Amino acid sequence: MIRHPLLLTASLGAAAGALGGMMGVGGGILLVPLLVHVMREPQHEAQAVSLAFIIATAAVAVVPYLARERLDLGLAALLAAGALPGVVAGARTAARMSALWLRRAFGIAVLATAIRILVAPPIPLGAAMPWPWPFEVGLGLGVGFLAGLLGIGGGTILVPVLTLVQRMPQHAAQGLSLLLIVPVGLVGVVTYARGGKLPAKLLPGLLAGGALGGLVGAVLAQGIGGRSLARMFAVFLVVVSMQMIFSRPRPRTRASGDPISGGPS
Q: Domain residues of the chain, as ranges?
């Protein structure tokens, strides 16, 4: 029987939610390694929980962005048109991959994001340059597939493309990413749940902490310059990526008295 202290899961949720709300990535990029290494959850279950978690986090965190930024709802609809089938395909692909390869794929994605931030921090230059609609749908498809495959919101890819390639302001790109995460997370978590990979007992504490942390992070983001914060975040991502790529999952303790132990996955 899995027994996870509510306070611990709420604390992890608050940390991941605050980072997600501040950076516009939902929080899964931090939550997945926390679940794997702190809570000792298997990779597939951690990703399923992460998708459920980012729904609540993004839904709360997007509110300050909606209040202060002019988000392109038409672009959000185009991205969602590609992202929703993409997340189903990604989640089904993940079910056929080993946990070790999933961890490595996740670590590589995180490392690529960190390098992008360190080498080329987003600086809006001139007017935005949106793509033709078929390319935006294709971008959504890729973002959704990554979200379903790795259990993250997809903002690690979407925000850099919007800011660096389409020249969207950082805050607007983060708000759009959070807006897209809500439907992507819903479809993704349903796909994982149908495969029996969603440990629901983790959700109450994570969702409560994530909603609070996401709101705090989003409010802070409105008053903080993104350049130095992005560089600090990138250094953290390098550490996370190295751990996910080169380390192996801890053995799961089955003792019933262990507060972070679990039964068969």
A: 6-246
- Record the tokens describing residue 184, joined without a space: 């992507």
Side-chain-facing half-sphere of 129: CA atoms under 13 Å: 9
Amino acid letter for position 161: V
Distance CA 190, CA 199 (A): 13
- Torsion of the alpha carbons at 158, 163, 167 and 172, rounded to the nearest 10: 90
pLDDT band at 43 (very low <50, low <70, confident <90, very high): confident
pLDDT digits (tens, 9 = 90+) for 103-135: 687 788 778 878 877 876 656 555 667 788 899
In three-state secondary structure terms, 200 is helix
- Which CA distances in Å does 177 have to 15, 200, 251? 19, 25, 35
